[in-house]
Each structure stands twice: as C-alpha cells, then as structure tokens.
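Step 1: inspect the first sequence and its tokens.
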Amino acid sequence: MPANSKKANAATGSNQGIGEEHEPIRIAYVDDDLELTRLVSGALEEEGWEVLVENDGESGLELILVEQPDLIILDVMMPGLTGWEICKYLRSKPDWNTTPILMLTGIGERMNALTAPLYGADAYLDKPFDIDDVVETVRQLLAQARASE
C-alpha cells in the first residue's frame, strides 16, 4: 500500500468496505514541553484522535516517517531539529506535500506569519494559546485535507 493510501483513508474517516474497521485520525505532536504535550494531546484524544508524541526533533521526524500520521503538530524551538527544519524536510518530499502541518510556537505572531508559510506549514498558533483554538485548528486542517482529496 502506498504511503498516502493509508493517510488518505484515515483523513477522510471513511471505511473502504463493509466490515472494515475504521482507523482513527492519527496526529504526530512534537514538542519539548512535557506539560504542554500532556495538555494538548489530552484535548486531542478527547476528540477521538490518536496522538503520537515525541519530545525532540530527531525522534519526532523518525516518528512521523514511520507512523505516517494524518496531521502533524510541531513546536519550533526544540533540541536537535527545529520544527521548521522538520517541516521543510517533509515538504521537500512528494508524499508529504498534502499532510497538514500546524506550528505551535512562542516566537511571536509577526515572526510566525513570515516563517510558517516559508517552511510550508499550513497554520500556526502562538504560545500561549487557548487549547480550544488548537482543537478547532486541527479540525479545520483535517477538513481542508479531506476536501482537497
């Protein structure tokens, strides 16, 4: 099965055939703030999404490449690879051009507005943020991905 087949099926939330079990939406979340990852992943899991968490850039990129998530959330400033480096790398690969990427950063709204599109992120939220804004942004990104299939 090509990498995008699984991602497309999970992103749409549709079952391919009668009797097939529905796969949950899978979200990779990479952030070195352990408390924040607990809060955000908990809120996303309450929505019924599966959240895979890593706390540094290298482990996060490996998780993304192996697990093929439907959506990616990245912190910018992390040990090892930054969120920007991960985003730029993924966008350089054809299989990752349509996977939504959300940046969560504390670098400031103006800097985010300039850098998020430059590296290929689909959306960004400034820290501190309201957890409801994260959930709503994820919903919107998943809906956009579904509509563009």
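Step 2: inspect the second sequence and its tokens, then contrast the two.
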Amino acid sequence: MSNEIDFGHDTDARKLNILIVDDSLIMRKNLERNLKILGHEIIGEAEGGQQSIDLYQELHPDLVTMDITMQGMDGITAVKKIKEIDAETNIIMVTSHGQEAMVMDALKSGAKGYMLKPVTPDKLREAIGRIFPELAGTVEEELMDE
C-alpha cells in the first residue's frame, strides 16, 4: 500500500458550498443556476438577514452571496453579525447600480467582495476568483472541463 497522496485533478477541490441570501426568489434561482454552471453546490437559501445568520450557523458555508437591500434586517447588518460568529467568513455582496455607498459600508463591515446585477457566470467567477484565486478562470474553461 502506498502512502502517497494524490493531488491530481479532483473536481471537488474546486467546488464551494454556498449560501445564497436574497429576498427575491427570482434572484436566488438565477444565482443558483449560475453558481451550478460554475460547479459549485448551493447548500442553503435565505430570503432575509436573520435567516441568513441562522443558516450560516447551521451550515458553515464556504461562501455567502448577500443581497444588500432586504426587508427586515438588511445585508450590511447581516454581514456584521455573521462576521461576529466567524471572522474568516467569505461574503460577496450582490447589488444594483446606485448602491455604491452601501457597498462600501458592506466592505468595511467585513464583506470580501461585491458584484453588480445582473448576475452572470463570468461576473460570479470573477468575484469568487478574487477571494479564491485558485478558482479564477473563464466559464469557457469550466465548460471544457465537463
């Protein structure tokens, strides 16, 4: 029996477990579809800030995509609370044009990146690649690997 460790091309090594947070069902489904195109797994969805905190504690995702504006607790407050639970958490804010001031607040609160709507696989890969450089690349490369 060999004690060598195989560091070959394990496709699971590139898969992140992701929690999607957005108050829009359409947006959550769009994010889910695009993240799956990139080979990631969606382990939970939340439609509000408090639910995102509860699910974060339960699921411990590798990455959270967080809408900034939601009913009840907004995304910035949720980021702060999640960062209190886990200072190393990886959160990408998903925002619309015109919310630049809120994006800056979210980044100061601990988010590690942001992306503007509309969401596309390329935008997601770019935002994720800034946090996880080993996952940077193009969607075309991902599709060729399949």
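Step 3: confirm your contrast with the notes below.
The longest strand covers residues 41-46. Residues 1-13, 138-146 have pLDDT under 50 and may be disordered.
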